[in-house]
Design goal:
alpha+beta, seven-stranded mixed beta sheet, two-stranded antiparallel ribbon, 3 helices, 9 strands, 18% helix, 25% strand
Amino acid sequence: MKKVAQYVEPFNEDGHSFISSSAARLLRSNYVARIPKKTSRTQAKQKITKPADRVIEIAQPRTFSHYIMNLPSTAMDFLPNFIGLYAGHEDLFEPQTTTRLPMIHCYCFGPRHDADGQDLDPDVAVQQVCESVSTKLQYNIDIGSPDLEIHAVRDVAPNKRQLCAASDCQLRLLFDDATYSLDNGRKLAMFWKKDPHVTALVRH
């Protein structure tokens, strides 16, 4: 944590509450990181002191760009917590601003073979993921939907494949009037760097 302490903040909270609490906290934050520019080898050898103007100031964004849920066995259980996450805060995103809605990355497992041991049609596995995501989000998503992209990550067992479902939330999902909004308060790790993006890593 020594070299990234200014833009990595770890938390130890339940993942369900982290999704809403971290978003609310980030919205209220006015944090600015001050990062010294790198010293060249020549300057280091000559022991040249860095002037004040060699410090880069980076304002922390007020909304997340990505949510990553990378534990396949439980990641989908967190999806309902995104319903209504930014209810009443539509003005934070496009088209009112240039800020895009957060991208949600949800890792999950899918079968490799059918009941007869034959290679499963990839579309079948993808459809199963679509159905699971639709159930969790209470929003119907089908294969080919622009709201969801699913890709294979790796095979983890003879009949188990790891997949990643990514949604850019071009849905009514985040703005629904639901229990999990920022205003009624309903982190495990929050990190950001020089590009204006903030990512939340959610793990149970």
